[in-house]
Amino acid sequence: MSQVFNFSAGPAMIFPEVLHKAQAELTNWLGQGVSVMEVSHRGKYFMELIAEAEKDLREVYHIPDNYRVLFLQGGARGQFAALPMNLIGKKGKALYLNSGHWSATAAKEARNFAEIDEITIVEKGENTHITTLDFSDIADQYDYVHYCPNETISGVEIFEIPNVGDAVLVADMSSNILSREIDISKFGVIYAGAQKNLGPAGITLVIIRDDLIGHARKETPSIWNYAVQRDADSMINTPPTFAWYLCSLVFKHIKAIGGLKVIAERNVRKAQALYDYIDGSQLYRNVVAKENRSTMNVTFVTGNPELDAKFIAEATAAGLQALKGHKVLGGMRASIYNAMPLEGVEALIQFMKKFEAENLA
């Protein structure tokens, strides 16, 4: 096995340059003779680190001044509960757009705290696609409208921002955060678990507009209260310092290679190469409509579960790891987040060609 390429859906691969930088500093961070994991989170050096991390993220993502950046814990699932506790107000309910497993899971959790309406916006089948994104006629009935722009399990991505009029739009961007430039001002809240494009598992990014902070219901736990976390620099308790540090290195790396325009170009090139091969193949197929195919998670099957299992086993032996699809759908899934190089996708395509030639009936 000459080189391993990790196609895990999350925790996913991190830029090698970031890992090498962390490795070099592991026992002697900033010449202090200790690891970043061993210093006080309220000490001078770590406070400087988090200030610079936010500055770099704001620059890379073009975050407007009237938005706060929070680095929290609990993953996206924690935010499934935090959102209704903080955002449900006078209207008393929220609208959830169901495009797959994770948007449905978010709605299920939110129902523990508020009245939730849910609309399915995906039509599944041999041409799985998003049906509608215009909710301007009903959105003003709700305190917020929630959606998941990229469903990792099915490989469905929503590239167009839903039309919700003047309503508050909330997006779970755990699997496509920082994959391309977006207009942050179109959203009230963006949140994302770190373990796909930001860094390691254990820290969660929340980007929230100022006017949405400070309205949490009285019984909201302080760790989920956006105002409390804002006022405490996201540190009402000891944060996951190493994860925060690694995220800071990722932001710097993205800046160094040319920002999100470069990242987006790479992501499109990788995804297009893989989809083009699948479309021309006699063995593999992808059932997502071209306009909704994810650039982050490419799903495919052979149509034969036993052959799928053989593919996964042989791919793993060839150094192409974590290609097994989610248990909900089966088949294969190649997660090609920001850190996956084009060489990894090319290696996968070459293996797929070889496997097809050897197994096509």
Task: Give a structural overview.
With 361 residues, the chain is of the alpha/beta class. It folds into 2 domains: 17-256, Aspartate Aminotransferase, domain 2 (3-Layer(aba) Sandwich); 259-359, Aspartate Aminotransferase, domain 1 (Alpha-Beta Complex), CATH 3.90.1150. 35% of the residues lie in helices and 16% in strands. It starts with a strand and ends with a helix. The mean pLDDT is 97. Homodimer. Belongs to the class-V pyridoxal-phosphate-dependent aminotransferase family. SerC subfamily. It catalyses: O-phospho-L-serine + 2-oxoglutarate = 3-phosphooxypyruvate + L-glutamate; 4-(phosphooxy)-L-threonine + 2-oxoglutarate = (R)-3-hydroxy-2-oxo-4-phosphooxybutanoate + L-glutamate. One of its GO terms (cellular component) is cytoplasm.
